[in-house]
Amino acid sequence: MVQASSSADPASGLRVLSRRNFRWFFLGQCASMFGDGMVAPALAFAVLGLTGHVTDLGFVLAAGTGSQVMFMLVGGVIADWLPRNVLMLGSDLLRTVSQGIMAILLITGAARVWHLIVLQVVHGFAAAMFMPAVPGVIQATTTPQQRQAANALRVLALSGSLIAGPAVAGVLVVAVGPGWAIGVDAVTFAASAACLSRVRLRYTVRLRRWRFGRDLADGWREFRSRRWVWSIILAASVMNLLYAGFSVLGPAVSARSFGGAGAWAVISATFGIGCLGGSIVALCVRPRFPLRSALIVMVAFACPTLTLAAGLTVGVVAAAAFFGGLVMMLFNTLWETTLQQHIPATTLSRVSAYEWAGSVACQPLGLVLVAPIAGRLGLHATLWTAGVLQVLVALFPLLIPEVRTLPSPTTPPADPVCAAPRR
């Protein structure tokens, strides 16, 4: 149960949109997230249409993800040094160009797999510059009391894009081809850049000489000096590794026990609807101890894996997936808000970069290892193991006093690097 010291209806959370700078930032995020939701299915059909080999698709997807991970810490350092809104604007313009070129190559029939790999590397680099800057922009464009609502709205947009993006991409791929879906993604990045150009932040610290190694080390010290940060990142990394049990083995269980892909589509759709529900819940609750509340509800994230392991009906698994999506988005909102409330603005992007890189570090390992482990232990034994471990890992950070007692502050963190002009 979430221990909330106060609550509000979702409409009250929309008041943060009255802040001009945040409103433009949010509108840009809505546009680019919608485009991001279209990319995965469009890119899959594009690569399979070129070669028909799943291996080639793996190389293309890995190029984007690998580039993003590789440059994430660099992006964190740069985002703490340059004006964050300007860095994000440049990142969106670069992705407009890279996705536009990819769309033209696909539409004209000139695309080759190596073209897509190179363009995905560029896309991943731009994303690595963009993502660490996001928490700092939210911190600078909202008051401490508004940040949870701001993060909840952003998560709501992300949840909606995970449903609407693939649906629109599917229609475009069937009707006119995957290149046109990628082209729409390029347009959404241009729209996001246009919105970011309207964001005005006032920076109060002059630019100093950039020393990458020293700045990266400073960010690491900020990260490791806070036990509540690194303990939860460690838990999140293991949780992402264990989630491969559901995401990889779930379709196999569905094919064996539920009649095929249709049942898995229902389960996946209810997970997406749960994500929307979690975003709305995050607009309504104000926990006094956000990390304690977030970790307690995160125990339910194991429910989809455990219901698959138990061999329950597709309806029960779908209901569990709904609650899994709900608690995941609620956790993400409370976590991002807590970081923005307690980490100084001068190092927030670097800490966020370490946070993101650490959270996903073990995910590829889980995707690679889960199938061989299931081949040795069996599907259901592997799922039981993953589900039980998810429960234990979610509760592990609660052993640390700072995690249990860290309050939701009413004052902004020290030494802000920028501020939003009053609007």
What does this structure look like?
With 423 residues, this protein is mostly helical. It has 2 domains: 12-201, MFS general substrate transporter like domains (Growth Hormone, Chain: A, Up-down Bundle), CATH 1.20.1250.20; 223-408, Growth Hormone, Chain: A. It has 19 helices and 4 strands. The protein has helices spanning 10-13, 20-50, 54-79, 84-108, 113-130, 133-141, 147-175, 178-196, 212-224, 227-242, 244-258, 261-284, 290-298, 303-309, 314-342, 348-360, 363-377, 379-395, 401-405, and strands at 4-7, 202-203, 285-287, 418-419. α11 (244-258) runs antiparallel to α18, α14 (303-309) packs antiparallel against α18 and α17 packs across α18. The model is unreliable at 411-423 (pLDDT under 50).
Task: Please describe the structure with a list of short key phrases separated by commas or semicolons.
Growth Hormone, Chain: A, two-stranded antiparallel ribbon, globular, 423 residues, mainly alpha, 2 domains
Could you name the CATH homologous superfamily of the largest domain? MFS general substrate transporter like domains
CATH architecture of the largest domain: Up-down Bundle
The poorly predicted ranges are 411-423
The figure for the number of domains is 2
Helix and strand pattern: EHHHHHHHHEHHHHEHHHHHHHE
Tell me what portion of residues adopts beta-strand conformation. under 5%
If helices are DSSP runs of H or I spanning 4 or more residues, what is the number of helices?
19
Task: Classify the fold: give the CATH topology of the largest domain.
Answer: Growth Hormone, Chain: A
Note the overall shape.
globular
* Cα gyration radius (Å): 21 Å
Helix percentage: over 70%
Largest sheet, spatial ordering of strands? 1-3
Provide the structure class: mainly alpha
Give a count of the beta strands, DSSP E runs of length 2 or more: 4
Average per-residue pLDDT, rounded, comes to 85
Q: What does the main sheet amount to?
A: 2 strands, antiparallel
CATH class of the largest domain: Mainly Alpha
Terminal residue distance: 37 Å
